[in-house]
Amino acid sequence: MGATWVTYFAALYLNFCDFSRYAKDKKAVKVGNIWGLPVNLILFSLVAGVTTIAAYQVYGEVLLHPEAIAAKFDSLTLAILAALTFAVATLGINVVANFVSPAFDFANALPKHIDFKKGGYIAALIALVLYPFAPWEGNAAHFVNAIGATMGPLLGIILVDYYALAKGQINIDALYQEHGVYAYTNGWNMKALTATIVGVVVCSILPNFTDWMPAWWGTYGWFIGVVLGGGLYALLSKSGHAHQTQQH
């Protein structure tokens, strides 16, 4: 279960830049991370634990889901308040995890035709189309592992590219040059793309759609993907430097 939780929150690593780009400086990023990650997670866990224990003392049964606790309320006012709280909490986490990042992704893929607003509409439309199938119901852990495993290779590639190859340096000017060192091959870093495809196939597609891999492979797909994607990208990049590392 711990591996599933790591895999679930690992997806947020990749859209971190979608929010940090608005920070005034590094200090703001660090302060936001402290309040948003360890402090928020600890407080959230405490509230969840206390609520579950209190519900057991009152109703005599273990109620792990908030809506199950709210269904026990005799007060209509409390039930409405609980429903509004669920709605706000659900909206908050989905905006952060499932809206902002894909909206930017679509906008970056076709910047001449799609802006952030249009990207958001596309992301919302995909969610509406996907919802009737509800792939997460009944086996949410399996669904999270399948989606999260596709993120592992990406994180591994990012870490290797920035820390091992670029040595933590970015050529700022080249970011804005259409034919600069970051243009790669018609805008695609083929080494990174190859490592991503291999990682996704081995860590997500094969363990979830075939019986070729051990049963535990899918559970730890994200961890394996980080190592596999990053390692393969490092090997492919030995044939030449991925980009200019001098910072301006």
Question: How would you describe this structure to a colleague?
Answer:
The structure is a single chain. The protein has helices spanning about 1-15, 15-20, 25-60, 65-70, 75-110, 115-130, 140-150, 150-165, 190-210, 220-235. It is mainly α. It is globular and about 65 Å long. The N and C termini lie far apart (about 45 Å).
Count, helices: 10
Major beta-sheet overview: none
* Strand tally: 0
In whole angstroms, how far apart are the ends? 45 Å
Query: Which percent bin holds the helix content?
Result: 55-70%
Order of helices and strands: HHHHHHHHHH
Low-confidence stretches: 242-248
Q: What value does the Rg take, in angstroms?
A: 21 Å
Q: Overall pLDDT, averaged? A: 83
Strand content: under 5%
Principal-axes geometry comes out as: globular
Global structural class: mainly alpha
